Amino acid sequence: MFSRFKKPEGTPVKPNGAAAPGAAPPAETAAKPGPAAKPVVARKPASPPTPAQAAADRERKRKEKMSELKVELHKRLLDNLNLSALEHASESDLRQEIVAITGEALEEMGVVLNKEERTTLHQELYDEVMGLGPLEPLLKDDTINDILVNGPQQIFVEREGKLELTDVTFKDERHLLRIIDKIVSAVGRRVDESNPYVDARLADGSRFNAMVPPIAVDGSLVSVRKFKKEKLGIDDLVRFGAFSEEMAAYLQAAVATRLNIIVSGGTGSGKTTTLNALSSFIDNAERILTIEDTAELQLQQTHVGRMESRPPNVEGKGAVTQRDCLRNALRMRPDRIIVGETRGEEVIDMLQAMNTGHDGSMTTIHANSARDGVSRLENMISMAGIEMPIKAIRAQIASAVNLIVQASRLQDGSRRMVSITEITGMEGEVISMQEIFRYERLGLAPDGKIIGRFTATGIRSNFSDRFRQWGYDLPASIYEPATE
Ligand SMILES: Nc1ncnc2c1ncn2[C@@H]1O[C@H](COP(=O)(O)OP(=O)(O)OP(=O)(O)O)[C@@H](O)[C@H]1O
Ligand SMILES: [Mg+2]
Predict the structure, then answer these.
(1) Assuming Cys at both sites, which of 62, 91, 149, 318 could form a disulfide with 222, CB separation 3.0 to 4.6 Å?
(2) pTM confidence score
(3) pLDDT per position as a tens digit, 385-409
(4) CA 401, CA 220: separation in Å to the nearest integer?
(5) Among the atoms of ligand 1, which is closest to the Cα of residue 145?
(6) Which residues hold their Cβ within 5 A of ligand 2, which is an ion?
């Protein structure tokens, strides 16, 4: 019975015999040994809980109880609700039904809840039946970017670039698995022991990845990158300090004059966001085709064709790779091709497209610097089974790629464009590059924030003439390094 758990205030006794919080002597007095006491051994009996601990304990018990109650009520709901009729029920009908069924059940179980508890319970049950259970409030919270689940008892979220642990939990692994299953089956996928991980896009555009035991050792791992209705634009990024006004002007010229651009960066460094923002500089008259593993880009232009690759089905058939999409895209008369992330064999077709008349194509790669990005491209080409001398591979890269924009998530959680580097050609066997802009770290503020600034390196762009010919006459001053 609920009243058993909701202890009346000031109950004096705890099961282990420790005095109740109110009656507890101050901790030091209790622990102080008497004069004759040996200074050693005798492990202190667990000291009585402080009022804060006791409150936390009560809260934990209350949560446990609510969670048990929810499971029981959920079971009853599923027993009592006509699930196929549910699909057509309106939200208010369903809510009413939940209130009615829980009311009945609570009465039967002799449980009394206050209004707030009832409201929470109704909402949680609704989320459980119709939505994604404990994940639902996190998905609805617009201040949260990412949700990271490490087994049923630990859910982290990312807010403003910082990870924080939430007090949201799943009842147990089975509960978590049920929610995962609900998510993936809704998008026609499956995840189980023989197929232990899945990467999918949810109906609302969010990216979802799950890996279940036994591959995930301590319980299922889930990560959700929430879809932002409003993608960050160039102005937002400048305002947030992701890059400077000068860099924005330079990038505008680079995109508009159809340079081939690669955005490089680590996981979650803001590559896709940057790519999306850069695309806003494309002329509205152009035909753009986008190719992604999970469609995240949101281009503002009128003439956009979007493609999403498809993994094989359970029988291992039906895969359509990014490379398949890309090859097909080349027959679809694109002005520009944007590949969300180049990570495999499609690199060859991407470079070829960049080299053969689809100037102004863009993609992202996973790398930590412009140089590293180039090596990644080389590796991808060799891995794709192309037998070419390294010099030829590099020549191919050097003539295809004009610009590498390096995004980075710094240790204080801020995301910045730490470098813009032009590829200028080959020198012997080496690809030559010049950095035009960079982020300079100057120090660390007491609150852990990085102090730094964007600066030009003093090198004038190799493409200045091109920019000018296309009507983007950038003032020479934007290439001047920052002074104190
Ligand atoms: N400059 C920025 N300031 C604040 N938030 C940002 C910034 N850039 C990106 N974000 C946010 O960071 C998250 C990750 O960004 P994004 O998806 O672009 O990264 P990514 O490098 O493409 O990640 P992945 O490696 O997973 O593909 C998003 O929620 C995005 O809205
Ligand atoms: Mg991305």
Answers:
(1) 149
(2) 0.74
(3) 888 899 999 999 999 999 999 999 9
(4) 40
(5) 29
(6) 271-272
